[in-house]
Amino acid sequence: xxxxYKDQSRxxxxxxxYVNPDIKYFLNKTLFKLSFLEKKIDxxxxxxxxxQRQYDDTLYRIxxxxxxxxxxxxxxxxxxxxxFQFITYTIxxxxxxxxxxxxxxxIDSNDENIFLVSGSGMFFKFRKNDIENxxxxxxxxxxxxxxIINYPEFYYGGKLSIKDIYIENNNVYLSYTKKVKENCYNxxxxxxxxxxxxxIFENFFENKQCTKNRTQAAGGRIVRLDKNKILLTVGDxxxxxxxxxxxSIFGKIISIDERTKEFKIVSMGHRNPQGLKFxxxxxxxxxxxxxxxGGDEVNLINLNDNNNKNYGWPISSYGFHxxxxxxxxxxxxxxxxxxxxxxxxxxxxxxxxxxxxxxxxELFEKGKNNYYFVSALGxxxxxxxxxxxxxxxxxxxxxxxxxxxxxxxxxxxERIRDIQLIDNNLLLSLESSPALGLIFxxxx
Length: 444
Fold this sequence. Notes:
The chain has a single domain (71-441), classed as Neuraminidase, CATH 2.120.10. 14% of the residues lie in helices and 41% in strands. The chain is built from six helices and 26 strands. It is globular and about 60 Å long.
């Protein structure tokens, strides 16, 4: 009977047609419960994917010809004793990015356009010239993303999402949380070609290693290292021990060879590195990462030094466990150096919900190579702790040693997911609204 019930042949279907509906229901809920649930989940999953396709198609048709973003706010800022203007534009079609939901969107650009991608993979662009006009018209872009990321859980809830976008000319790299198998995920990268109104993606980097647990702690930031390599941050996914496991990709910053797709561990002992900047002139990397309860870090990875580049998580951290419990494998010693690890350049306790880091010398003392903005997510009721703000820092070379110094907190009352400096204009992905932020220098 079981094989007849499972079989989909004409003969079996004819026999099943004579079965009383009440008996069918009873069999579905008892003897064939697992099969029934699998079939139901499969049907629901297909509906989710189909609905997402329809939603993407509807958005594309609505915004194919472009719409002007409405200016929401316009005010003056004083940063480092210099005058700036801060404008925000409401973006109606991105999700409100509070904690536990998908990131609202990420930003990058090529020579002509600025691109935005939402946490669920919707793409938009506007012309660079529109920044100068302060009159921004945004257009939708199609992609084949749903043909590659075709598991329904990616498109609902906040656990799985796009993690970063990096653009060079007409090539776009996209990191995301990939489902390798049931309840097992990693951080993978797609590479696409930007056409006039569409981006065509294919798999670029994927690894067989996968893990379950906190998929939000995925890292995913991408930058260029050299002609043939890109850098990618990979979080520990809440599996803390993996950050100290040299055979694991998790809790690491890695370089990926574009020709062979082989990766090499650049640094380890990371929790959830969310910001990344390669300083070619000095041959070092700046990364930011979320601590636990406190201990958000800005780390300097010196590529001129061949010593072990281990940043201590989960053995050393200036933060604390949220539950207050002690763990032998995660003692969270406050000193990094005393336990053989590299000290953070700067750390924030309490946490600020640290995200991206960018170099902003053009806005201040050009050529000094020492001014940076660090952005913060976090909560509105923790503004006094540094959340929902920009943080201006300096990195100075004193006696051949680099030192980080906090200069100023610029409170914006918005979760700042991403920041880019484009033609002396600072663009910000503001999640709380959601909105596009624009900061530019003005005459005194």
